[in-house]
Design a protein that fits this description.
97 residues; alpha+beta; four-stranded antiparallel sheet; globular
Length: 97
């Protein structure tokens, strides 16, 4: 069964305190889904049409788990805490294996 991945690219962070609150809530919300954070910030080299922005990559055992975690009540609370504190591109993608 292919894994599922959350890919978030933060275009702007306007409220670091909201982001910090979101991070705490999201960590707890994702634990029951077996989420593994593979990338959170760090160095970025951007090529072609890319821009060097904060990137987060979270792995799940399946695409379905990734979607269910995003829709869970606990994660919705984390999103409410984040509110308008960032502008990000968020997507869920299916892995190859």
């Amino acid at each position: 069964m292919p894994k599922g991945y959350w890919v978030s690219v933060y275009r702007t962070i306007t409220d670091p305190e909201k982001l910090a609150a979101y991070n705490e809530l999201a960590r707890s919300a994702l634990r029951p889904w077996g989420a593994r954070t593979l990338v959170r910030g760090g160095r970025v080299e951007a090529y072609d049409a890319g821009t060097a922005e904060r990137t987060v990559l979270v792995e799940f055992d399946s695409f379905e788990q990734a979607v269910a975690a995003r829709e869970s009540a606990a994660y919705q609370e984390a999103l409410a805490a984040l509110a308008d504190g960032v502008e990000r591109d968020f997507r869920i993608v299916e892995g190859l294996d």
